[in-house]
Write a structure and sequence with these properties.
Helix content: 25-40%
Distance between the termini: 21 Å
Oligomer: single chain
CATH class: Alpha Beta
CATH topology: Glutaredoxin
Strand order of the largest sheet: 2-1-3-4-5
Radius of gyration: 13 Å
Number of strands: 5
Order of helices and strands: EHEHEEHE
Shape: globular
CATH superfamily: Glutaredoxin
Structural class: alpha+beta
CATH architecture: 3-Layer(aba) Sandwich
Amino acid sequence: MGTPVVILFTQAGCVDSGRVRRLLRKHGVAFGERDASRDAEAAVALAQTGIFGTPLLVVADRMVFGFRPATILHTLEDAGVPVGVGRVASPASDDGATAR
């Protein structure tokens, strides 16, 4: 089994989308980006998740909404995605994290 696909749903003007993008790059995570504000197919795919905001990170069958660094890294590691450089303590350190 290979590394799960990582998709970041973003939209123009979303500050937290940029923060998630930088976090993924900092940790050497390969990901695809879909801008729901500029791509109708991306907007439909985002709506199909049941979450209508960004940033939304989709890792295999898991989703993390918002900029929640510890939850994002924990979710990536749990899904078997290689995460390099540094580590963030634990998902409990994220306030109000949403991960499924």
